[in-house]
Specification:
The chain is of the alpha+beta class. It is 18% helix and 26% strand. It has one helix spanning 50-78, and strands at residues 7-11, 21-32, 39-43, 101-104, 119-128, 131-136. The chain has a 3-stranded antiparallel β-sheet with strand order 1-2-3, covered by helices on one side. The protein has a 3-stranded antiparallel β-sheet with strand order 4-5-6. Strand 5 (119-128) and strand 6 (131-136) form a beta hairpin. The structure holds zinc ion (ZN).
Length: 164
């Protein structure tokens, strides 16, 4: 998910490198700083024309998103709860019932408590009338044997909470 401070900004602070120019800001979620744990900030060059900057920012975002997707896929292949699963569609409305997916985690780790870049297992759940949302999937089983239930507290469904 793009951060709120992302986008094209005009810099007017005197004496700064970008003064009087447009620059694009994109955050690389797969590359967190060791000190702050915040995603690394990537910027375009400075542009006098806003349109040029918008194009350069779009290009930069595509590069960063491709890098994030590759890092996530590599991570998913390493973990039992995400390997051999399809990537979740962008919207839960496009996801299928009883299919288990992997995707970029959008919540803090339930055991570590910190928000980090990691692959998580997801299933589609009903959100409200004719709407769907993603829920963290139960970690029981691998690949096509993955449990299709949502995890309730911790990383398992009630049926598998004692089995693992
Ligand atoms: Zn389960």
């Amino acid at each position: 998910m793009p951060s709120r401070s992302e986008g094209v900004i005009f810099c007017r602070s005197k004496g700064k490198k970008w003064n009087g120019r447009w620059k694009g800001v994109v955050y690389d979620r797969s590359d967190r700083l060791a000190t702050t744990r915040k995603p690394r900030k990537c910027t375009t060059a400075g542009y006098t024309d806003r349109g040029d900057c918008v194009r350069a920012t779009r290009e930069l975002r595509m590069q960063v998103e491709a890098k994030v997707a590759a890092a996530l896929e590599a991570m998913a292949n390493e973990l039992d709860h995400t390997r051999d699963l399809p990537l979740r569609p962008a919207s839960a409305a496009q996801a299928e019932a009883n299919v288990v997916y992997y995707g970029e985690a959008f919540h803090a780790d339930r055991e570590e408590g910190s928000k980090s870049f990691r692959a998580e297992r997801y299933v589609r759940v009903p959100a409200s009338r004719e709407r769907f949302a993603y829920a963290t999937g139960c970690r029981h089983g691998v690949g096509k044997h993955a449990c299709v239930n949502a995890a309730v507290r911790g990383y398992h469904c009630p049926e598998h909470k004692d089995v693992g």
